[in-house]
Amino acid sequence: MYDLIFYLELGLFHVLDWNAIDHMLFLSALTIVYTFKDFKNVFWIVTSFTLGHTLSLFLSAFDILKPDSQIIEFLIPATIILTCVYNVMNLKVNSNVFFEYTFSIIFGLIHGFGFGNYFEMLTDSLDTKIIPLFGFAIGVELSQLVVVLAILIINTILIKLKIINKINYVKICSAVIILFSLNLIYQMI
């Protein structure tokens, strides 16, 4: 039971850690186009991301697949930028839910591999890695839902009170997120 709680907390703080800003940026990019009325759809998009994230941790923890960490570290901000570009390009079009679930899973895989080596070191001496994976996944999912809930509330307030129109809001937020993501890439160089 201790392992489950430890890894659940690790998952919670993996997302909520300001030093791991890539998660916050990705969650922001993923949800800026939605309001609170879209919570069910956003829940499944975020859960798809968590499934991909967990799958890549599983693949890393059991030495099934370990992509080059430098490539993954580049791809993480690239996925954030691609999400923002997708948001801006689809502002006037109904979203493609199947596409969004699919790319959330794929992007979750990429982001999970970014944490895979560290997770493997933490669980290397354990007899079973299933309980840590399960606890970590629950922690990640819960913290992501808290962040997403906060973003959806902010989005809803700003758009419903007509403080800013949705198209400008998405464009401005996307531009800011892209700049932060480009900075992450620049720091790698």
Provide an overview of this structure:
It is globular and about 55 Å long. The chain is built from 7 helices and no strands. By secondary structure, the protein is mainly α. Helices cover 80% and strands 0% of the residues. The mean pLDDT is 89.
Concise synopsis of the structure shown:
The protein is mainly alpha-helical and 189 residues long. It is built from seven helices and no strands.
**Number of distinct helices:** 7
* Secondary-structure element order, N to C: HHHHHHH
Strand count, sense and barrel status of the largest sheet are:
none
- Strand percentage lies at under 5%
Coarse structural class:
mainly alpha
Q: Unreliable segments (pLDDT under 50, ≥5 consecutive)? A: none
Q: State Rg.
A: 17 Å
Helicity range: over 70%
Rounded mean pLDDT is: 89
What is the straight-line distance between the termini? Answer: 42 Å
Count the beta strands. Answer: 0
Shape: globular
Key traits:
single chain, 80% helix, 7 helices, mainly alpha
